[in-house]
Amino acid sequence: MTPDTLLPALLASDPSRPRVTFYDDARGERIELSGRVLGNWVAKAANWLQDECGAEPGSTVRLDLPPTHWRTLYWALAIWAVGATVSGDDDADVVISMTAGDLVEPEASLAKSEIASAADQFTVYLPVDLSRPAIDRPAPVSYRDLIRPVDAASPRTVLEGTQPEVLRTAADVLAADGSVILFAHEDTSRRAGRLQDEGVTAAV
């Protein structure tokens, strides 16, 4: 499986199953996205990238967003849907941020994004080139090589680390028909109970 085919596979498997769960303890927020809802957000973001920014294979997009925010994940999936590269370059063609950039996302999970009115269906204009990088930092990883095998069926995994690490592991887990848990400003004293409640099988 490659990143651009990941989301269609999730929707074909079970569109109603939770695929992303996000906690922000500083704001007292919890958000859960099914495969269908995640797909809607990815389509909106991909349509915005393709139609408003002209993003295509070869374009670079910088995600100046927290590594474990749910918006970071749907933007990465949208970037891969259009065949572009998640870039760590300050001079990327497009910048998505929570402060300043081509598009500014709200930090609050439940606040409305600028892309909310975009279409829920996405059709890519140009085919994805599997030899191009899906992520370019710290070292380029191609579309063909991004997703690694996971030794579990339908894993439910907590993600932590740098943005490239989180995105790559999220792709691995989702490709294995699993789901991911993300934390921001976590109250660590609550983690054990949450892992049990969420049925987590691994923390990465």
Short account of what is shown:
With about 200 residues, this protein is α/β, with parallel strands linked by helices. The protein has helices at about 5-15, 35-50, 70-80, 165-175, 190-200; strands at about 20-25, 30-35, 60-65, 85, 95, 105, 135, 140, 155-160, 180-185, 200-204. The strands form 3 sheets. It has a 5-stranded mixed β-sheet with strand order 2-1-10-9-11.
What does this structure look like?
InterPro entries: ANL_N_sf, Rv3268. The protein is an alpha/beta fold. It has one domain (3-203): ANL, N-terminal domain (Rossmann fold), CATH 3.40.50.12780. It is 31% helix and 21% strand. It has 5 helices and 11 strands. The strands form 3 sheets. A 5-stranded mixed β-sheet has the order 2-1-10-9-11. A 4-stranded parallel β-sheet has the order 4-3-5-6. Strands 7-8 form a two-stranded antiparallel ribbon. Strand 9, helix 4 and strand 10 form a beta-alpha-beta unit. The protein is globular, with a radius of gyration of 16 Å. The mean pLDDT is 93.
**Tertiary shape:** globular
The number of distinct structural domains comes to: 1
The biggest beta sheet reads: 5 strands, mixed
CATH class: Alpha Beta
**CATH fold category name:** Rossmann fold
Helix content: 25-40%
Strand content: 15-25%
Q: Give the beta-strand count.
A: 11
- Termini Cα gap: 21 Å
Structural class: alpha/beta
The CATH superfamily is: ANL, N-terminal domain
- The stretches of 5 or more residues where confidence is low (pLDDT under 50) are none
Q: Which second-level CATH architecture applies? A: 3-Layer(aba) Sandwich
Give the SSE string.
HEEHEHEEEEEEHEHE
Number of helices: 5
